[in-house]
Amino acid sequence: MRESSKAMVRRLYDQRFATRYFVGEGIDIGAGNDSISLYRELFPSMGGVRAWDMPDGDAQYMEGIADESYDFVHSSHCLEHMVDPSVALKNWFRILKPGGYLICVIPDEDLYEQGTFPSSFNPDHKWTFTTWKPSSWSNYSINLFDLIPTLGGSAQTLRIELLDATYHYGLPRFDQTLTPMGESAIELIIRKRHPQELEEGGRLPPKDKGLTQKGFTLLTGISLK
Length: 225
Hints:
About 20% of the residues lie in helices and about 25% in strands. By secondary structure, it is α/β, with parallel strands linked by helices.
Protein backbone atom coordinates (compact mmCIF):
# COMPACT_ATOMS: atom_id res chain seq x y z
CA MET A 1 0.00 0.00 0.00
CA ARG A 2 3.12 2.24 -0.05
CA GLU A 3 2.50 3.67 3.39
CA SER A 4 5.91 5.35 3.52
CA SER A 5 5.15 7.21 0.31
CA LYS A 6 1.80 8.36 1.69
CA ALA A 7 3.49 9.66 4.82
CA MET A 8 6.00 11.77 2.89
CA VAL A 9 3.30 14.16 1.69
CA ARG A 10 2.38 15.32 5.21
CA ARG A 11 5.97 15.07 6.48
CA LEU A 12 7.06 17.75 4.03
CA TYR A 13 4.89 20.21 5.98
CA ASP A 14 6.71 19.49 9.25
CA GLN A 15 10.22 20.94 9.01
CA ARG A 16 11.45 18.75 11.86
CA PHE A 17 11.60 15.76 9.52
CA ALA A 18 14.10 17.64 7.35
CA THR A 19 16.04 19.38 10.12
CA ARG A 20 16.00 16.81 12.97
CA TYR A 21 14.41 13.41 12.34
CA PHE A 22 15.79 12.41 8.92
CA VAL A 23 19.32 13.66 9.49
CA GLY A 24 22.45 11.57 9.01
CA GLU A 25 22.67 7.84 8.35
CA GLY A 26 19.56 5.74 8.84
CA ILE A 27 17.96 2.35 8.51
CA ASP A 28 14.46 1.60 7.25
CA ILE A 29 13.16 -1.59 8.89
CA GLY A 30 10.59 -3.49 6.85
CA ALA A 31 11.15 -1.17 3.89
CA GLY A 32 10.06 -3.57 1.17
CA ASN A 33 9.84 -1.74 -2.15
CA ASP A 34 8.84 1.55 -0.52
CA SER A 35 11.95 2.74 1.31
CA ILE A 36 12.16 6.34 2.49
CA SER A 37 15.48 6.49 0.61
CA LEU A 38 13.36 7.10 -2.51
CA TYR A 39 12.74 10.59 -1.13
CA ARG A 40 16.26 11.61 -0.10
CA GLU A 41 16.20 14.65 -2.39
CA LEU A 42 13.32 16.07 -0.33
CA PHE A 43 15.33 15.84 2.89
CA PRO A 44 18.75 17.39 2.20
CA SER A 45 20.33 16.27 5.49
CA MET A 46 19.36 12.63 4.98
CA GLY A 47 22.44 10.53 4.30
CA GLY A 48 22.49 6.89 3.32
CA VAL A 49 19.51 4.73 4.29
CA ARG A 50 19.87 0.98 4.64
CA ALA A 51 16.71 -0.89 3.68
CA TRP A 52 16.25 -3.87 6.03
CA ASP A 53 13.78 -6.58 5.13
CA MET A 54 13.21 -10.30 5.53
CA PRO A 55 16.29 -11.45 3.54
CA ASP A 56 18.47 -9.43 5.94
CA GLY A 57 17.27 -11.26 9.05
CA ASP A 58 14.66 -11.19 11.78
CA ALA A 59 13.65 -7.57 12.39
CA GLN A 60 12.74 -8.49 15.95
CA TYR A 61 16.40 -8.93 16.88
CA MET A 62 18.38 -6.99 14.23
CA GLU A 63 21.25 -9.42 14.63
CA GLY A 64 24.48 -8.21 13.11
CA ILE A 65 23.65 -4.55 13.72
CA ALA A 66 25.81 -3.05 16.46
CA ASP A 67 24.46 -0.87 19.24
CA GLU A 68 24.18 2.84 18.44
CA SER A 69 24.82 2.40 14.70
CA TYR A 70 22.33 4.83 13.17
CA ASP A 71 21.31 8.47 13.49
CA PHE A 72 17.70 7.54 12.80
CA VAL A 73 15.66 4.36 12.65
CA HIS A 74 12.48 4.29 10.57
CA SER A 75 9.86 1.57 10.35
CA SER A 76 6.47 1.67 8.68
CA HIS A 77 3.92 -1.08 9.31
CA CYS A 78 6.38 -3.70 10.50
CA LEU A 79 5.98 -3.84 14.29
CA GLU A 80 2.56 -5.48 14.06
CA HIS A 81 4.19 -8.47 12.29
CA MET A 82 6.67 -9.15 15.11
CA VAL A 83 6.20 -12.11 17.47
CA ASP A 84 7.16 -9.86 20.39
CA PRO A 85 6.80 -6.11 19.65
CA SER A 86 8.43 -5.20 22.96
CA VAL A 87 11.62 -7.07 22.08
CA ALA A 88 11.58 -5.63 18.57
CA LEU A 89 11.17 -2.05 19.73
CA LYS A 90 13.98 -2.45 22.25
CA ASN A 91 16.32 -3.69 19.52
CA TRP A 92 15.31 -0.88 17.16
CA PHE A 93 16.08 1.53 19.98
CA ARG A 94 19.32 -0.31 20.73
CA ILE A 95 20.80 0.37 17.29
CA LEU A 96 19.93 4.08 17.53
CA LYS A 97 22.66 6.58 18.46
CA PRO A 98 22.15 8.90 21.43
CA GLY A 99 20.46 12.04 20.16
CA GLY A 100 18.92 10.09 17.29
CA TYR A 101 15.28 9.47 16.43
CA LEU A 102 13.09 6.39 16.12
CA ILE A 103 10.18 7.00 13.75
CA CYS A 104 7.65 4.18 13.75
CA VAL A 105 4.24 3.89 12.09
CA ILE A 106 1.80 1.13 13.05
CA PRO A 107 -1.86 0.52 12.18
CA ASP A 108 -4.41 1.78 14.68
CA GLU A 109 -6.65 -1.12 15.71
CA ASP A 110 -9.92 0.79 15.31
CA LEU A 111 -9.04 2.52 12.04
CA TYR A 112 -7.43 -0.49 10.38
CA GLU A 113 -8.66 -3.75 11.91
CA GLN A 114 -12.07 -2.19 12.68
CA GLY A 115 -13.22 -4.66 15.32
CA THR A 116 -12.03 -7.89 13.71
CA PHE A 117 -8.98 -9.91 14.74
CA PRO A 118 -7.29 -12.01 13.45
CA SER A 119 -7.18 -9.41 10.74
CA SER A 120 -9.36 -9.88 7.69
CA PHE A 121 -7.24 -7.32 5.82
CA ASN A 122 -3.77 -8.68 6.63
CA PRO A 123 -3.71 -12.16 8.21
CA ASP A 124 0.00 -11.81 9.09
CA HIS A 125 -0.75 -9.15 11.71
CA LYS A 126 0.00 -10.62 15.12
CA TRP A 127 -1.01 -7.64 17.29
CA THR A 128 -3.26 -4.62 17.25
CA PHE A 129 -2.26 -1.20 18.59
CA THR A 130 -3.88 1.81 20.17
CA THR A 131 -2.53 4.98 21.74
CA TRP A 132 -4.28 4.08 24.99
CA LYS A 133 -7.72 2.97 26.10
CA PRO A 134 -8.94 1.15 29.23
CA SER A 135 -10.31 -1.84 27.32
CA SER A 136 -10.21 -3.18 23.79
CA TRP A 137 -12.29 -5.48 21.63
CA SER A 138 -8.98 -7.14 20.60
CA ASN A 139 -7.42 -9.83 22.77
CA TYR A 140 -4.04 -8.93 21.26
CA SER A 141 -4.21 -5.18 21.84
CA ILE A 142 -1.13 -3.19 22.87
CA ASN A 143 -1.37 0.30 24.35
CA LEU A 144 1.58 2.41 23.20
CA PHE A 145 1.55 4.30 26.50
CA ASP A 146 2.28 0.96 28.17
CA LEU A 147 4.85 -0.20 25.59
CA ILE A 148 7.05 2.89 25.42
CA PRO A 149 8.14 2.88 29.10
CA THR A 150 9.72 -0.55 28.56
CA LEU A 151 12.47 1.26 26.59
CA GLY A 152 13.74 2.85 29.79
CA GLY A 153 14.71 6.34 30.79
CA SER A 154 16.65 7.04 27.59
CA ALA A 155 13.43 7.17 25.59
CA GLN A 156 12.08 10.69 25.17
CA THR A 157 8.63 10.51 23.59
CA LEU A 158 8.13 13.36 21.14
CA ARG A 159 5.00 12.28 19.30
CA ILE A 160 2.18 9.77 19.45
CA GLU A 161 -0.27 10.85 16.78
CA LEU A 162 -3.39 9.19 15.44
CA LEU A 163 -3.19 9.60 11.66
CA ASP A 164 -6.85 10.00 10.85
CA ALA A 165 -6.80 13.23 8.81
CA THR A 166 -7.75 11.32 5.64
CA TYR A 167 -9.90 8.68 7.35
CA HIS A 168 -13.63 8.48 6.57
CA TYR A 169 -15.44 7.47 9.77
CA GLY A 170 -18.85 7.30 8.09
CA LEU A 171 -17.99 4.64 5.50
CA PRO A 172 -18.85 0.92 5.82
CA ARG A 173 -16.08 -1.42 6.94
CA PHE A 174 -13.27 -1.80 4.42
CA ASP A 175 -9.48 -1.37 4.31
CA GLN A 176 -9.08 2.36 3.85
CA THR A 177 -5.33 2.05 3.29
CA LEU A 178 -6.27 0.80 -0.18
CA THR A 179 -7.19 4.37 -1.05
CA PRO A 180 -4.43 6.72 -2.31
CA MET A 181 -4.48 8.82 0.88
CA GLY A 182 -5.82 6.73 3.78
CA GLU A 183 -3.23 5.95 6.48
CA SER A 184 -5.35 4.44 9.32
CA ALA A 185 -2.33 4.47 11.58
CA ILE A 186 -0.40 5.86 14.55
CA GLU A 187 2.93 7.64 14.20
CA LEU A 188 5.38 7.31 17.06
CA ILE A 189 8.55 9.41 17.34
CA ILE A 190 11.05 8.78 20.12
CA ARG A 191 14.37 10.49 20.70
CA LYS A 192 17.24 8.69 22.43
CA ARG A 193 18.59 10.81 25.25
CA HIS A 194 22.32 11.35 25.73
CA PRO A 195 23.74 9.89 28.97
CA GLN A 196 24.39 13.44 30.19
CA GLU A 197 20.67 14.18 30.00
CA LEU A 198 19.97 11.26 32.30
CA GLU A 199 22.59 12.49 34.74
CA GLU A 200 21.21 16.03 34.74
CA GLY A 201 17.58 14.97 34.84
CA GLY A 202 16.62 16.55 31.54
CA ARG A 203 17.75 18.17 28.30
CA LEU A 204 19.26 21.39 29.61
CA PRO A 205 20.89 24.29 27.73
CA PRO A 206 24.58 23.82 26.96
CA LYS A 207 26.97 25.04 29.61
CA ASP A 208 28.90 28.27 29.01
CA LYS A 209 31.71 27.57 26.55
CA GLY A 210 33.38 30.95 26.79
CA LEU A 211 30.74 32.91 24.90
CA THR A 212 30.95 36.53 26.03
CA GLN A 213 27.93 38.69 26.77
CA LYS A 214 28.66 40.70 23.65
CA GLY A 215 28.99 37.56 21.59
CA PHE A 216 25.71 36.20 22.93
CA THR A 217 23.96 39.44 22.02
CA LEU A 218 25.41 39.41 18.51
CA LEU A 219 24.34 35.79 18.08
CA THR A 220 20.81 36.09 19.45
CA GLY A 221 19.95 39.77 19.45
CA ILE A 222 19.15 39.45 23.17
CA SER A 223 20.89 41.47 25.86
CA LEU A 224 21.62 39.73 29.15
CA LYS A 225 21.64 43.03 31.04
